[in-house]
Amino acid sequence: MTASSYILTFSCPNRPGIVAAVARTLFDVGGNIQEAHQYDDVETNLFFARIRFNFVANDNLTACRVALSELAEGLTMQWKLRATSDKARVLILVSRFDHCLADLLYRWRIGELAIDISGIVSNHPGETYVHHDLSGIAFDHLPVTPQTKEQQEARIWQIVEDRQIDLVVLARYMQILSDDLSTRLAGRCINIHHSFLPGFKGAKPYHQAHGRGVKLIGATAHYVTADLDEGPIIEQDVERISHQDRPDDLVRKGRDIERRVLSRAVFWHIDGRVLLNGRKTVVFRD
Amino acid sequence: MTASSYILTFSCPNRPGIVAAVARTLFDVGGNIQEAHQYDDVETNLFFARIRFNFVANDNLTACRVALSELAEGLTMQWKLRATSDKARVLILVSRFDHCLADLLYRWRIGELAIDISGIVSNHPGETYVHHDLSGIAFDHLPVTPQTKEQQEARIWQIVEDRQIDLVVLARYMQILSDDLSTRLAGRCINIHHSFLPGFKGAKPYHQAHGRGVKLIGATAHYVTADLDEGPIIEQDVERISHQDRPDDLVRKGRDIERRVLSRAVFWHIDGRVLLNGRKTVVFRD
Amino acid sequence: MTASSYILTFSCPNRPGIVAAVARTLFDVGGNIQEAHQYDDVETNLFFARIRFNFVANDNLTACRVALSELAEGLTMQWKLRATSDKARVLILVSRFDHCLADLLYRWRIGELAIDISGIVSNHPGETYVHHDLSGIAFDHLPVTPQTKEQQEARIWQIVEDRQIDLVVLARYMQILSDDLSTRLAGRCINIHHSFLPGFKGAKPYHQAHGRGVKLIGATAHYVTADLDEGPIIEQDVERISHQDRPDDLVRKGRDIERRVLSRAVFWHIDGRVLLNGRKTVVFRD
Amino acid sequence: MTASSYILTFSCPNRPGIVAAVARTLFDVGGNIQEAHQYDDVETNLFFARIRFNFVANDNLTACRVALSELAEGLTMQWKLRATSDKARVLILVSRFDHCLADLLYRWRIGELAIDISGIVSNHPGETYVHHDLSGIAFDHLPVTPQTKEQQEARIWQIVEDRQIDLVVLARYMQILSDDLSTRLAGRCINIHHSFLPGFKGAKPYHQAHGRGVKLIGATAHYVTADLDEGPIIEQDVERISHQDRPDDLVRKGRDIERRVLSRAVFWHIDGRVLLNGRKTVVFRD
Lengths: 286, 286, 286, 286
Prior knowledge:
The structure is a homotetramer.
Chain A: E1 6-13, H1 18-28, E2 31-41, E3 46-55, H2 61-75, E4 78-83, E5 88-94, H3 99-109, E6 115-122, E7 139-141, H4 149-162, E8 167-170, H5 179-184, E9 189-193, H6 205-212, E10 216-223, E11 233-240, H7 247-270, E12 274-277, E13 280-283
Parallel strand pairs in A: 5-6, 5-8, 6-7, 8-9
Antiparallel strand pairs in A: 1-3, 1-4, 2-3, 9-10, 10-11, 12-13
Protein name (chains A, B, C, D): Formyltetrahydrofolate deformylase
Active site (chains A, B, C, D): 229
Pathway (chains A, B, C, D): Purine metabolism; IMP biosynthesis via de novo pathway; formate from 10-formyl-5,6,7,8-tetrahydrofolate: step 1/1
């Protein structure tokens, strides 16, 4: 068998025989299924799957794509196929708080996140990140004011297009994307919301949580949509707090939750484990 | 030393010397501090403490109460003193779903919850609970309709008074207490809210959570106040769910969270570990 | 479509085309795959799967079994097929501590565990369980001494055979099964070990944990094998403890972990989610 | 009141009146208790406390130390007093895996860990850490062979003495300290053990865990003692794994557990929250 693996993800209206048809199609072009996850949503009657396969003998990718295309047409299937060796091109947007950035950079450096970091955009100047090793990474300082917002978003979009960005990560980027940009980036822009949604939406959620006296705080990674704080949730996690914790302690504890929730979401997204299902997600966790 | 232990809980405006004064007072009447927790809320400038102590020689309770009274007056202190051997009298209110009731009964039977169950009130008939051993426990069937609600609440209050109830537990009691009764039971009525507040308030929170596609569900135990779902939170916990979980699965998984959150809240309350701090709580966890 | 669902579980040496072949086989007899999990163990080169399906039109079970038999022969496949409406017959063995028993009984009563409780065997007399409603459940008091152990195990085995028991649950049964009985019950006898294995094997693990000063305690559900405390692990969970916890507190907190770990293991086992893989398990969690 | 806070930690044989005496002593020198934790170990009959206080008017530290000295003598008390503004001097020992180092450096840079990093010692050359910003931090490359071990440990000890190191952190330092050095660093050297002790001691614990098929993996931060892997445990945590995880996945998931467990242990140690109690610890968690 060859070394390369491929990830096929797809969704389509459910009907009998989908698995058989896809499995047969892959088998016929010499594919060997290594891992498979599927989910049948009885509410929407949609079927979702992620299949990792390789080729028994020679890579037969062209024939495979042709066969899948034909099948997809018949099944009204939306599908993606990519080699695990193809690294996703990721653009990171960040503001002053850099804990998520630091975490992503570290995981990328040691090879845990198999991505290309194709750029970092910040509304703060490069000096903010002087302790990070950004050598070899394009950095754009795009300060945002109400007056410049439209223009700066245009530049972000230009970067996305020019560098063929696969995924935009809002790593505590404290600017709200316009409806227009959100829509253009639908399904390929992940935000970390520093709260356990839908608990405390909006600004300063840790202060809100403190005021309410909750006993757990959390964070939420979600796809960005025009409807702020309402995008499809990918991952959430929490940590226990107590009456002793002041807002600053919540912010400190929150940093740990945020970075691990965001990095999981990015990891799963690039590994083809997250599929959109309307305003929800299907996540085949690792 | 004698076998009995006493729990002193108090709160007062913070000022230097409180601990020294209380410790000295207890020492002077022959008390030996076995365990102490304290918390100084810098926002409200209130001081909270829980002290477990026994007497080195003979129990000197009368002198102890007199001394504490004097001290309390000087410090504008609210305080409670009880022997750990005095079991709290608990009234459980329940509706059709009996998982929290079953859990409390079991913990009580094996001596884990050192309480007296002074009665069970349900808006469902006794047959609902035929699989539980309620022998020796007063059971009142008080069905509630809009017309009878006031009258039935009067009977509940009568029970609370007649039996000198220390704590009312709403163990998935699906009736909303009136503002009046909530107010009378302030600080001694614990509800289990089948949601991670303030995520999904109101009815059918697991269905709401399912609709929103969250990745964690939770439950919240809180003191009942007139402001529904807004009472001081005592304890919360969560469990991970996935896209595979249907509303019924959430309800099933929720039962486990609800019963452990409620039993912890009750356990801590009767052990003097929960102190009210405005609309929040101070919880000295075990 | 018909209402009944079927669970097919199987394992076999891995080779290309297994999924395609099984999916095709089911499709050909009118089956519709509703849910599928699979796992390819690259170390042992074994393939594991669980497939839930129903029939599009009429239930075609006989043809389905015939087709699967043929396929299984070709693939050297071990397989099981059962209707979700067929309840597993479960025998519970218990000793003095009844918290796991109480938990299983409750989940069974409310329909959460879709099993038939075909009997309870205890080395303690029936009076021990007077607070439980055991009406309609066969109860056998089989006290064990070194002298009677062989004979009592023979009676247990007789019960297993006579009542066609599918699963034996050791719900804190404080007798060690003989190698012989363990072997006969291989893969259908689940034990709850009151420790996070392999941390503290053997007797009084909570006391061992206390002595060592660990900060988390746990419990382990595993299949029983002749090699005590070494059987394939199905599920584990932990809870945080502190220096304040005495051995009794660990035992108390341990009860909660034990019952939830055991009930999950039983739930997953009867739902066909646990497959044996040598001395390990494959668990397709719900 | 003045801005500075002080942390007093002490332990002594338990007897009535300790809290009263200490509280009185602090009060008499103008101290105001802001936070207090205490623990009475009934097994060893030792009493442990941590008290944070400030001075109502002027800092009266000399008088305070004199008064505490006298008291300590009478109570056979071991005690430490330090200003929260005095930063602990920390030496980090590291080998090739730098995830714990990266984490500690980040927390230090943003002020979360209020320490001075007084040096980094590695048995690997400085180039290993080229992506970290080590500017301003002394770095010593001390490669260890069986022949040079004694000599290199002497140099480490020299560094500890010269720089008045308060705490040595073994941040995945893959060399076993000699009994002699372990003993000299007793109570001020924290190791992260990449396993949930006492589950899998020794080398390659994640591979051991994989082989055993456990469902949770963990990490343990403990004080270093001559008895390898047996030092007093400060903190532990776990993460859920599944049959899908290969040893490499366990190593990856383990990194996250290790860094958060180690950073918590260091945070609590420097904040005076960890007290030694024989081969166990008392941890007043934040």
